Amino acid sequence: MNINRLRSSVQRGAWRGFGLGALCSAWGVQAQPAQVVRLPEVVVTATRVNTPLEDVVRDVTVLGREEIEASGASTLAELLGRLPGVVSVGDARLYIRGAEARMTAVYVDGVRVDRQDALTPGGGAPWQVLPLDDVERIEVLRGTASSLYGSDGMGGVVRIVTMPTTGEGNSTRASLGVGAWQQQAARVSLRRRLEQAHVGVAVSTEHHNGYDQRPDLRHTPANLAQRRQQAHAYLQWGEPDAGGRLTLGVRQGLTRQAGVKVNYLNVAPWTADGTGTNFWITQTLNQWRVEWTHQDATQGTHVVLNQANFGYDDTYPDGVRAFAGLATTLTAQRQHQAAWGQWHAGYEGKRDSYQSQSWDYNPEVDAVRHQHALFGGLGLPLGLAQAQLDARYDTSSADASVLTGSVSAGMPVAGWQWRGTLGSGYRLPTMSQRFSIYGSASVRPERSVNAELSAERGNMAQGRTTVTVYQQRFDDLILDLSSNSSCANGSFCATNVERAQVDGWTLVHRQAWGAWLGALSMDGMVASNKSGGNQGKDLNLRPRLSWQASLQRQWAAVSASVDYQHVGRRFDDAANTKPLAAYGVWKLGVSGVLSPHWRWRLNVDNLTDATYETFKDYAAPGRRWSVHLVWQGD
After folding, report:
1. What burial letters (b/e) apply to 119-134, b meaning 16+ CB within 10 Å?
2. What is the Cα 19 distance to its own chain's centre?
3. Contacts of 414 (CB under 8 A, 6+ apart)
4. Phi-psi region of 195 (alpha: psi -120 to 50; beta: other; left: phi over 0)
């Protein structure tokens, strides 16, 4: 059995020793000067409680604000796609360890965000509207996490933090950027400390004219533009260890982008002569949360009520398509620290509502689903070893109850640090798969089992190496089959038919030579169907081999880095009849300090203007550059 553990203690050593963590862990992320990098000392994604990085036995990567800004990435999916073990396809799909895009749970400031519609197969996170401009930190957990977070955490968890996690003082930041495709970007954030309170607000906007994603079609305009806007405000009152902290937060996000559609069946308003029709897609994500936290040296209480509202509408050629999903979640958690270890336990309740207007072949849908969960975990120091045990029991008003669990451990053996995890996961059917005319009450939750093992050795001066192997098995995968007639529509009904398995490995090496820092990672996987007519075929869009290499150099006031990302051959379809050729992309980043308050950075993506496809018949971006000027003060 192959088992995958990509361990971030490697990254911790690089980050703390050189202040260049993003380069070491994201390969394509250009690091800022070491003196300005501030990294969090704890993470919560791997255990649901604040845990020092050195005590985490799961596979977690942390990216800080400076690394995110220096990356030059225009979308969250693009940034995360540069991490080992992660494959991004365009700006709408992300595969962690080969798991389907819908199998990653995503949280923005603790608020769960996803979509329940039929346009994205199986649902999943709305990656195109998730924030990147005002993000403080991103935590990525690889491997199943349903025992911590419930449904959707079959492949991993992405936690996005946009507000400070520590009591920072006054701060004002502003940036302006220009780039290819007539890109224009601006961002302003303001944070103030007022005695017992912390307040903050951030707004950002970006617009570009895009590029021709379908050069094989005649459509006007050829370039497909995009606009993104984000606004965020928060208030924190008190301190967790001094009577408790109350946090109020609101966020609004909007993405508007052009698309092109062609109908090869020669049905109006399309024709089969290579003519396409442009249309506009608008996605919104609005959320709020109220949180109470009390924490001292030995115990803590955490209660949060939040809501996320995702909306979608477009001007599709034959009629507007529109739907909305509203998720309200209440979580209460208690934790305790003792000499023998720590424990946490809690309750989570969630109400999902989904509304879809009538369009095309889809009648109106208005449905509600309730979920309830009890969860708990133990962290046990065992001499030189550490162990983490987690379990969760989920019930749903429309689905079967599910019990999930995981066991993780780590210990040094013969100069190597070994870590491993065995866990189970699940994902509920989307609201569309359950309540639309294509849904069925007989559809069962998708399930998974994940096993992983890693070994790590060395240090940055001598070279640090991590080897990881993993296996993920997925059962009861849900597909919409034209031959299935078990739903009200009579065809294209959601049903459990597929099994799949991903066997993979990751090799990571990092080393410093004086002022130079180098990194190399390789990912290999065999992701295949294990049932049905496509048995033995590769899962679509997963390369069997990919690798990345980075080299960075720091001077007095300037930092420069270059990296190369290679993505191997893969298939666009489940039947493996539409191959996508391998490709390689070079990236260049240069940043510098002009004064104590002013910084600049230049990023060039696809430096050699390579031509390639991430989807069949959809062109990838050519050479793209951007220049940003940043001011920061009190």
Report:
1. ebebbbbbbbbbbbbb
2. 23
3. none
4. left
Q: Which two tokens stand for residue 29?
A: 């992320």
Both tokens of 42, joined, read 């704890």
Site of tokens 């059962």: 475
**pTM of the complete model:** 0.88
Q: In a 10 Å sphere around its CB, with 0-12 CB exposed, 13-18 middle and 19+ buried, how is residue 97 labelled? A: buried
Cα–Cα distance, 35 to 364 (Å, whole number): 56
**616, 406, 478, 571: which is closest to 100 by C-alpha?**
478
pLDDT tens, residue by residue, 34-48 = 333 344 456 777 788
User: What is the number of helices (H) and of strands (E) in the chain?
Assistant: 6, 35
H/E element holding 373?
A: strand 365-382
| Residue count (the chain) | 634
- Residue holding tokens 């308003």? 269
Rounded distance between C-alpha atoms, residue 156 and residue 160, angstroms: 13
* 8 A C-beta contact, residue 230 and residue 133: yes
Lookup: tokens for 415: 């100069």
* pLDDT (tens digit per residue) in 407-466: 999 999 999 999 999 999 999 999 988 888 888 888 899 999 999 999 999 987 789 999
Question: Which residues, in sequence order, are bridge partners of residue 333?
Answer: 302, 346
